[in-house]
Amino acid sequence: MIPLKVNGTAHTLDVEPQTPLLYVLSDDLGLNGPKFGCGLAQCGSCTVIVNGRAIRSCSVPVGSVANAEITTLDGLGTPENPHPIQKAFIDEQAAQCGFCLSGVVLTAKAFLDQNPRANEEQIRQAMSGVLCRCFTHTRMLRAIGRYAAERRNA
Amino acid sequence: MKTPTMTSDAIAALAREGVSRRAFLKGSGALIVGFSVAGAAGRLGLTPEEAFAQAAADPNIQLDSWIAIQADGTVTAYSGKCELGQGQFMVQSQLVAEELCVPLDRVRLTQCVTGVTPNQGTTSGAGSHFANFNRAGLALAAATARQTLVGLASTSLGVPAADLTARDGAVFVTSDTSRSVSYAELIGGRTFQVPLDKAAVRRHPREWAVLGKPIGRVDLPDMVTARLQYVHNLRVPGMLHGRPVRPPSVGATLVSVDESSIKDLPGIVKVVTRKNYVGVVAQKPWQAIQAAEKLRVNWSAGSPLPSQAAYYDHMRTQPSRDTIVVDSGDVPEKLAAAATTMRATYRYPFQMHGSIGSSCAVADVQNGKATIWAASQNVYGLRGASATLLGVPPETIQVIFTRGSGCYGINGADAVAFDAALLSQEVGQPVRVQLSRKDEMAWENYGLAFVIDQQIGLDAQGNIVAWDYEGWSASRGGRPGNRPGNVASGFHMGFEPAPFQPRTPSPAPTEFLTDNNAAPAYMVGRVGSHEPGGAGLVASERVLSHRIESPFFNGPLRAPEQLQNTFAHESFMDEVAARVKADPVAYRLRHLRDPRLMGVVSAAAKGFGWDARPSPRPGNRQRGVVNGRGFACVARDEGNGWVAMAADVDVNQDNGQVVVKRLVIACDAGPVSNPDGIRNQLEGAALHGISRTLTEEVTWDSNKVTAFDWRTYRTLSLGTTMPKVETILMDKPDEQATGAGEMSITIVAAALGNAIFDATGVRLRQVPFTPERVRAELLASSD
Q1: How large is the ipTM?
Q2: Which residues contact B496 (CB under 8 A, 6 or more apart)?
Q3: Whole-model pTM?
Q4: Which of B718, B722, B725 to mutate to test the interface with A (most CBs of A within 10 A)?
Q5: Which residues of B touch A104 (CB under 8 A)?
Q6: All domains in chain B, ordered by first residue
Q7: With an 8 Å Cβ cutoff, are A36 and B358 in contact?
């Protein structure tokens, strides 16, 4: 049995400890946010935040994150009350198919939480392992920049 | 168009959508616009009980409706075109609200469910028309409904219809807006079935109140908060997880499967084989993945692939299916008489759709019925192909479009639906399949490889007097339609792709069709005694295309063939302009006659601040970083959009790195349905084009594809320095809307190649422009 704390809710799950976290989140807990993109930690679609750091849940055994604080895109905000970074994406209309959003939003959020004064170039560097095949890059970086500025001025 | 009958599955699907058709009929009244003409007049104004009795008694009532307005004023619209990430859901909702004159938030759109929505073929068929797809369907249905309601209001208010105005879900007396009646009041408890009126008057773009506005996508808040359910998120009761085991090489056939090799693994439900197909079904996804990896399967060696290094030459030697697009008959003599001739060859590789999410589908095949949830662009086509695959009548299958990862043409959405359907049929339980990254990439339907020979003749003044195009492209399979064998999974299951039929020589053309822009815009395009169909002035013209059989599955990757052809045309035009020392923009305009193409060329040049001069840029050094600008344009196919682009590019001559700094795009897509939506598409497609131009290429060795993940098939990440993209929209309210999602990507490769030439004086004639290739060409030119 593995204890997991996901989006503020505690669960105890009967799963193989070697199972990648992604499958537990999407199949056992039914969360929509983290998605299988490559299974190789190359694209970012499965990203979740664990203890404040963005990680690729397709490549992390669930046993290694027992008791950690896990946040998925589902847990950040709601359509009625989106998290400020989610609101920035809505304001900038920064999506097309939206499949990659867990990687884009959560990687940016975790980075800015730790580096609130990061400049544009540093943000871009932080996003260098994240892929979007609709190439909504420009709008996404604008949304992240907007969130970063609001965060600094808050 | 064959319309589906209303099946019990359809009713079930309607119920799932919360819009039961029978509830319309039994409940509180509705106005329904559809194709059913027979008896429709007789149904007008029936009581709900009468209508329901008639519907129940009449097995011929067709479920083909486009739109239904319920008595509470809610509008349900049915569309056979789906959301792929391009904003279709939003713009179709706007379309309904606009034509019906209701607030946007009253519109509920149901997209692509067989037996429920009309069969509109492939969503991006006919050249990815963006908003015009429904000018004969959804828009006319909404206009019919509005017209009907205005007619009812005329009776109710005792005022001629001409003196009434529809607005915000009500009909007002134009001269006295205190007198009005709402749609809900007009419908009351009654049910109206109205045949679609092809002559219904649509609202003119100049009157648009909802369309034409940069309204944010209604689905985006759900997407960014993970409330939107993709097919990847779908979970149905009793669902198992499947995983195919694809062959290790192209053409390998199944010899044997050793099931004992996974007997100790947990959760295994079944190992399925059919012909050359192998798959496993397990209780949990991770169990299925491990089982597929560990299952020992013996395969035959397969068939050798042609050498990649020599592939473009190989293409010229194969049996081909030939098409003469246009031939004025005088090209050889005009070339012979020309003051100067020029020739060049351009090469474009196989490329992937490469969806960010590997494809996924869920199928439930049991008790003589099947339901398939898939992100296919064509639910009716998938239903037909699945019927062939499963050996059941199509009407026992329902395909429900469920959103997936952006596909840009045909990714693995159809292929994986066959995996799920077969595995579910074998276990008699619902099965979800999501492909591995490798199975997605090594077996998808790649965009076509091309090699193109161009030749022109110039007169003494440097004008092009003759143009000859001869191209070879490789293709196999494609969208499934009714052929499961057009994609890898169905082929492995024992179905053949559409047969390749060589044809030499080509029959003469009977009308001018550009054949996906095989004909350059600069040609007159004269076929027989028809009015010339081309956009240009070059009257001595020949275009000959050879299609050969590809070793891989292929399909319509974004701007299919148009991109490859346009790369060759617009690069060549730039070479010719440089040869005669003309400004590339002025030289293009000198050979064009289509005002819409000339309009976007001028607008992009102006927006960019184009300084008229020949390329290459004078004074650039031969080392270090140099800067250049390039231009390209296209009239897409036959009247499907006009676009031009100017690119500002840095080239590092020491390492071959190309950095795009700024793009200015001018686009004429007719009336603009949603300015922000079209800009989003123009921007995304431009950057997609940069990635395809600079890095993307399918690679292979002697028997298998060697590009199967994001390390072996490169794409530009969010960390890449991307250009500032400026978009200029030529709003044309009096024209028809055209496609926009493929517009800017068509011209990126040429614009970048031309900018690299401007910066360095070196011409790149083969995509991708990798640093290695750029560096090699620079070195070759300095020898």
Answers
A1: 0.98
A2: B483, B485
A3: 0.94
A4: B718
A5: 718
A6: 8-224 (3.30.365.10), 239-301+359-434 (3.30.365.10), 449-782 (3.30.365.10)
A7: yes
